[in-house]
Amino acid sequence: MMSLLQLSNVAVAERLGPISATVQPGELVHLVGPNGAGKSTLLTRAAGLSAGAGQIIFEGRDLSDWQPTQLAHNRAYLSQQQMPPFSMPVWHYLQLHQPVSHTDSVMLKLVDDLGLADKLSRGVNQLSGGEWQRVRLAAVVLQIHPELNPHGRLLLLDEPMNSLDVAQQTALDRILVALCEAGIAVVMSSHDLNHSLRHAHTVWLLRAGKMIAQGSRDEVLSPQHLATAYNMHFRRLQIEGHSMLIAPL
Ligand SMILES: Nc1ncnc2c1ncn2[C@@H]1O[C@H](COP(=O)(O)OP(=O)(O)OP(=O)(O)O)[C@@H](O)[C@H]1O
C-alpha cells in the first residue's frame, strides 16, 4: 500500500534530521520529545510551509510540486497557539475555513462538540485562551472534514491540547478518533506522555532533531527510550488495565 505521507531524510539546517518515516491513512501519530527537539520544525516542514533537505511525498507527489491552494484542500495545519491580532466574529472565522460557503450542519455539530455554540457571535479576540484554541481547532477540522471535503487526507496539529481543560481534551480526542476512523491521518505533537501512551497508534520520539524511536506507543514510550530522550527514569505501571508512566520526583 502506498503511504499517505512519506518522509525521506528530511532535514532543516542543523535543527532537524535526517528523519525518515511514513504515515498511513487513518493513522494517529503522536510526536513527542523535549522542548527544542524539533517537533514544530518537523510539522511545518511536513505541512509544506518551510524548506529544507530530503524528500516528502504526499499522496504520491513530491510536496514541492503541490500548489499552496491545492495543498489547503488536502491537508490542514494548526500552528502553536497565538492570540489573534485581528477581530472578527467566531462564526465568520469558521466560515472562512470551511470548504462550503453556507453554515453547514457539520460546522454546527463541531461547534457544539467543542462547547462553542454560545460563542459564535463573539469576537475572536474576546475569547479565553482555551476558547480561542477550540475555535482554531474547529477551523482546521472543518478544512479537511470528510463530509465537507472529498480531498481531505491529513491533519497536522502542533500541541493541539494546549490550553484545553480535561473535558475539552476528551472532546477533542473523540473528534480525532472519528476523523481517523473516516480515514484522515493525524500527526500531532504533545508533551503529555500518558495521553500518548493511551491514544496514539504510533509514536515518533525526537531528541535534539533526531528520531530516537518510532513505532507502537508501547515500544516507543518505554522507560529505556524515555531515559535517552529526557534523561529521566520513568516507571511504567499498569492501573486498571491501562499503562501509566510515573515521572521520578
Ligand atoms: N526560526 C528559527 N531559527 C533558528 N532556529 C530555530 C527557529 N525556530 C526554532 N529553532 C530551533 O530549532 C530547534 C527545534 O525547535 P522546535 O520549535 O522545532 O522544537 P519543539 O520540539 O517544537 O519544541 P517545544 O516542545 O519547545 O515546542 C530548537 O533548538 C530551536 O531553538
TrEMBL record:
Superkingdom, taxonomy of origin: Bacteria
Keyword line: ATP-binding, Cell inner membrane, Cell membrane, Membrane, Nucleotide-binding, Translocase, Transport
UniProt subcellular location: Cell membrane
Domain ABC transporter: 5-233
PROSITE patterns named among the record's database cross-references: ABC_TRANSPORTER_1 (PS00211), ABC_TRANSPORTER_2 (PS50893)
Keyword NAD: no
GO MF annotation list: ATP binding
Chain residues that bind ATP: G33, P34, N35, G36, A37, G38, K39, S40
Coiled-coil ranges from the UniProt annotation: none
InterPro entries given in the database record: AAA+_ATPase, ABC_transporter-like_ATP-bd, ABC_transporter-like_CS, ABC_transptr_BtuD, Metal_Ion_Import_ABC, P-loop_NTPase
Pfam family, one: ABC_tran
Enzyme Commission (EC) number: 7.6.2.8
Enzyme class label: translocase
Substrates-to-products reaction catalysed: an R-cob(III)alamin(out) + ATP + H2O = an R-cob(III)alamin(in) + ADP + phosphate + H(+)
Family the entry assigns: Belongs to the ABC transporter superfamily. Vitamin B12 importer (TC 3.A.1.13.1) family.
The protein's role, per its UniProt record: Part of the ABC transporter complex BtuCDF involved in vitamin B12 import. Responsible for energy coupling to the transport system.
Name the record gives this protein: Vitamin B12 import ATP-binding protein BtuD
Gene for this chain: btuD
